[in-house]
Write a structure and sequence with these properties.
It comes from Tepidimonas sediminis. GO terms for molecular function: ATP binding; sequence-specific DNA binding. One of its GO terms (biological process) is phosphorelay signal transduction system. This is Transcriptional regulatory protein ZraR. With about 450 residues, the chain is an alpha/beta fold. The protein folds into 4 domains: about 120 residues, Rossmann fold (3-Layer(aba) Sandwich), CATH 3.40.50.2300; about 180 residues, 3-Layer(aba) Sandwich (Rossmann fold), CATH 3.40.50.300; about 70 residues, Helicase, Ruva Protein, domain 3 (Orthogonal Bundle); about 60 residues. Helix content is about 40%, strand content about 15%. Strands 2-1-3-6-7 form a 5-stranded parallel sheet, sandwiched between helices. Strands 9-10-13-8-14 form a 5-stranded parallel sheet. It has a two-stranded antiparallel ribbon with strand order 4-5. A hairpin with an 8-residue loop joins strand 11 and strand 12. It is globular, with a radius of gyration of 25 Å. The N and C termini lie far apart (about 70 Å).
Length: about 450
């Protein structure tokens, strides 16, 4: 046998033969079946590395086959082929445990690429039994950084481990400062792509006129200043994971282009004639309510449907206050190591009680800033309650408004007095204030000017 065996389940003989020939050319041993009954017979006779199945079969659905593989504890990874534009079928297949999906018409190159990625995943699909092989070496420390034994944090880790070994797009939601990028990095570390690159991009930080070039690259002479070919972030993430942070900030024209990339698994650099295939898993994140943006016409429904195959919610700190002591200890340990201290300071019970009095609208990021300030101003082995300087007036910012530069009626997202008090508490350190609010620096400066504070 020249390579892991494959099973192709397709009712159209011409397509089945095309797939088999394309795979045989690269040394793959291929078995074929024209319906569910034939697939069941083949699977009863032997095990395969990958099963490629059409969604619609004469005697059932590819989803039926996925469920049977999962219920039988089979080790095969499944790739589902769907009709063009049937995003709902693709979502159903991924949630049922498919490793990946392909949209007709399927090119031989695209088929080989998907199968190669599936063969590299040495574990059963997400809906199947527990993995038979150990997770990647990077998985353990990545999961350990998701601190907390609350039900909310256990749910995050459980979902992450279930879906890490598939190609299913993941959408991480949660308020600013909740650690969405940490979750994305842990997802990457637990996947078969752990040895590949993890590329993070803040979609709201790139000027709209540069987004296409940054994401997809450009060819020499594509525009003024393009003195040579330059790969984009999709190409940089080839074989790994691309993390699209603040994906809600993508302009509508770029949303259309991103949707095509997700469908075709290929990008066209600016100034290029042909598309370039990319093997990238997409993980996106937002602190905004994407479903509401879809209703308001500010985010494409079809793109939302593609990105939100597997949702993961990053809980706000106030949703799991029982984890606050462990998170605070971990932050202090990291700060102590960074500053070269012999040991991390200990929080007294009174200090912890004081921390519990604060709602932490800035979540873990705000907690880190607060502890960093306490450590700097109160050096020593113990931090007592007097070291914890809480804001004079807690800023209860509703989710989805803190990062909008302007609101519908162009009102400030918080009163002038509160913003001034926070700036004064941070000694007018704009970067620290912006981090605490979960804002960009540009947004903070904008509102400082609008409110006469700059």
């Amino acid at each position: 046998m020249s390579g892991p065996s494959l099973l192709i389940v397709e009712d159209e003989p011409d397509l089945r033969q095309l797939y088999a020939l394309a795979l045989a050319k690269v040394g793959q041993e291929v078995d074929e079946a024209g319906d569910l009954a034939g697939a069941r017979q083949r699977l009863a006779e032997r095990r395969y590395g990958v099963v490629v199945t059409d969604m619609r079969l004469p005697d059932g659905s590819g989803l039926d086959l996925l469920r049977e593989l999962a219920q039988g504890g089979r080790p095969e990874r499944a790739i589902v082929i769907t009709a063009y534009g049937s995003a709902d079928n693709a979502v159903q297949a991924l949630k049922a445990g498919a490793f990946d999906y392909l949209t007709k018409p399927v090119s031989p190159a695209r088929l080989r690429q998907a199968i190669q990625a599936a063969l590299q995943a040495h574990a059963p699909p997400a809906a199947g039994p527990a993995p038979s092989s150990p997770p990647p070496a990077a998985a353990a420390p990545a999961l350990q950084r998701l601190i907390g034994d609350s039900a909310a944090m256990r749910a995050v880790r459980a979902t992450l481990q279930r879906v890490a070994r598939t190609m299913a797009p993941v959408l991480i939601s949660g308020e600013s400062g909740t650690g969405k990028e940490l979750i994305a990095r842990a997802l990457h570390a637990c996947s078969h792509r752990a040895e590949g690159p993890f590329v993070a991009v803040n979609c709201g930080a790139i000027p709209p006129e540069l987004l296409e070039s940054e994401l997809f690259g450009h060819k020499r002479g594509a525009f003024t200043g393009a003195s040579g070919d330059r790969p984009g972030l999709f190409q940089a993430a080839h074989g790994g994971t691309l993390f699209l942070d603040e994906v809600a900030d993508l302009p509508l024209p770029m949303q259309v282009k991103l949707l095509r990339v997700l469908q075709e698994r290929a990008v066209r650099p600016v100034g290029a004639v042909a598309e370039e295939p990319v093997d990238v898993r997409i993980v996106s994140a937002t602190h905004k309510d994407l479903a509401r943006l879809v209703q308001d016409g500010r985010f494409r429904h079809d793109l939302y449907y593609r990105l939100n195959v597997i949702p993961i919610h990053a809980p706000a700190l106030r949703e799991h206050p029982e984890d606050l002591p462990a998170i605070a200890d971990a932050i202090l340990a990291r700060l102590a190591q960074r500053d070269g201290l012999p040991a991390a300071p200990r929080l007294t019970d009174a200090a912890l009680q004081r921390l519990r009095q604060h709602p932490f609208p800035g979540n873990v990021r705000e907690l880190e800033n607060l502890l960093e300030r306490a450590l700097a101003l109160h050096p020593g082995p113990v931090l007592d309650a007097d070291a914890i300087e809480l804001p004079a007036s807690p800023l209860a910012l509703p989710q989805g408004t803190a990062a909008d530069v302007t609101t519908a009626d162009d009102e400030a997202p918080l009163p002038r007095a509160q913003l001034q008090a926070l700036l004064e508490r941070n000694r007018w350190n704009q970067s620290r204030t912006a981090r605490e609010l979960g804002w960009t620096l540009a947004k903070l400066r904008y509102w400082m000017q609008r409110l006469g504070l700059a």
